[in-house]
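tool_call: predict_structure(chain=1)
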Amino acid sequence: MTKTLQDLIDESIFISTEYQARLAEISGDSEWTVDFSAPSFTLDSDPSVSLDPYLLGTESDQRGSWIWSWQELGHFPDVVVTAAVQAREAGEHLGVQELTTDELVLSEGLARRLTLASKAVTGVFAHYPAAAGGGVRAWLLVDGPQLELPEPTVNRMGRIMAQALQTNTAVHHQRAVDSYARLRGAHISWDTEACAVITAADGALRLWFDDHSISGIEQAEPVVSKRELAQAAKDADKHRQALREEARRSLAIAQRESEQQRLSREEAEAQRVAATEAALASEDEQQAAPALEDTEGVEWTQPTAEGQPFDQEPRQDAEPGLVSTHMVEDDEAATSEQAAPAAAAAAPASPPASDDAVTDAHPVIEEPDSTRTREQEAEDEDRRSALERLRAEQAENDAARAGESAESAPASAASGSTASTEAADERAEQAEPARAETPEREAETQKGEETKKKGFFSRFFGL
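tool_result:
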């Protein structure tokens, strides 16, 4: 069987009006406080009244939406959201989409209509819209022995129906009247679809209907005995007990789903933290690693014992002269490369070549010949004199450095830790740009976490 949201509203509108009148009697203009951890809804009347609160959802003018409290369980005690879960389960069974959609676009009177429909499927018929500030209202169902209604009478039921009809909330009046009589434990009999008689302990009422609306009401003679009235009261109590049993099942569902969602949130948070740490570690490695671009095919060679390649001091016995080079053509280089292995294998071991045995493939120092002019010889003599002066100055400098090294050796040893510290500081400064963004990333991560953690509350309370 399927129903609409309006069908459920029609079924609850009259009895809801009677319970709201009872709540107004015991509360008056007193202040109220709600504590979901207890849970309790307290009216500061004289004497004070404490009722059981059930949070259905919130409406936010700022967000322009209604959000059910079951949208994300675990933020409130399970018993507090029991009525909302029960409404959702009934909505799934009856095909009422408004009761199963976690967030709805706000429209005029939507929150009240959802609350009235929830009353029909939970059996909790009093409600209180609690202002939460910022244009947000939390809609609660409240229950307790203080709200118990007196025995039904036709006079009271007639006044309640007339009062409820003034709100123009009910659409199908036959359904509304039939549901009200059965929920209150009164007896109702239908002569035709257009006429019904309600019988209670103090008498009876006859109602006429025209196009699903009440067109007339008058006093009537009772048509049933006290025995049939007692049976009607038992049927009403049986219906209330069935709804309470549904509430217990809904509480078990809320507890199970709350635990599942809690575990799911913890797992998602752990995965998010792990992914964030991995991303930060990967970025740190990339920023700390040397930038080696276009290194494919490059061969890295360790420096020789004599020092860095092409970075040696000039030899002491270097003589001035002329330098000439012989460039090897591509064809010749290819032939030489192909012939080199065969020549190396076929050639017998030989003593090291002399300085005279230099091939054209290497720079050749050409000694000055005897055909030079006197001017050229004079220039050469000046070069040699300058070279000798440089050698003498170099020798003096070397001796001076050797003496200074001997004197500063202890100081150098003592300052090793300082040098290491300075080197570490230098490396830290070099790595600092890579880590400079870490606090920002952590701030962004913390902000994303807070956003995710309070996402439900920000929507639920319209923040």
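agent: The first strand starts at residue 32 and ends at 35. Proceeding to next step.
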